[in-house]
Design a protein that fits this description.
Hypothetical protein af1432, mainly alpha, 9 helices
């Protein structure tokens, strides 16, 4: 399964919810950009991009089930959805496992392990900050406390002019 095929399948999964589709495309674009600038190896880049595309796979279910897309709900509900999403694909169990892990932790800002995880956190933050109008203090705090990659820090600084 290619990144383009994953994107096409996820857009279809989103059932025309433009906000969800736009969000996943933006997070994927930032994640891809940061990953390339950080010179990730091909496998890690693939995992990162697949996780970025599917990171909010649980949002429709969470809206229906909880009336909320709270991050903890997304993490809990997202992992089994990712497994089902990739079932029957040519991805290995190891690849699916890592994507599940990333989707299941993309709102957890502690114990970030791996460049794919770090970059997904940074890319999702950029988009969430833009979509939700985060104030300068919140953005600066994220850069000081959470952001680690030079490319991610640079993008955040340029996007938000901090």
């Amino acid at each position: 399964m290619t990144i383009s095929e994953i994107m096409q399948k996820m857009v279809s999964f989103s059932e025309g919810k433009i906000h969800d589709i736009d969000h996943l495309i933006k997070v994927w674009a930032y994640a891809r950009t940061i990953g390339v600038l950080e010179h990730l190896n091909e496998e890690t880049q693939f995992i990162l991009e697949a996780a970025a595309i599917t990171h909010d796979i649980a949002c429709p279910l969470c809206r229906e089930k909880y009336g909320s897309t709270n991050g903890k709900y997304q993490e809990e509900e997202g992992m089994p959805l990712v497994e089902e999403f990739f079932k029957g694909s040519d991805l290995t169990d190891q690849q699916i496992g890592r994507i599940k892990y990333l989707v299941g932790h993309h709102h957890t800002l502690t114990d970030i392990s791996g460049s794919d995880y770090q970059i997904l956190i940074e890319a999702d933050f950029i988009v969430n900050a833009s979509e939700n109008g985060y104030d300068r203090d919140k953005i600066e705090n994220f850069v000081q406390m959470i952001a680690k990659t030079p490319a991610g820090i640079n993008l955040i600084s340029e996007v938000f002019r901090i």
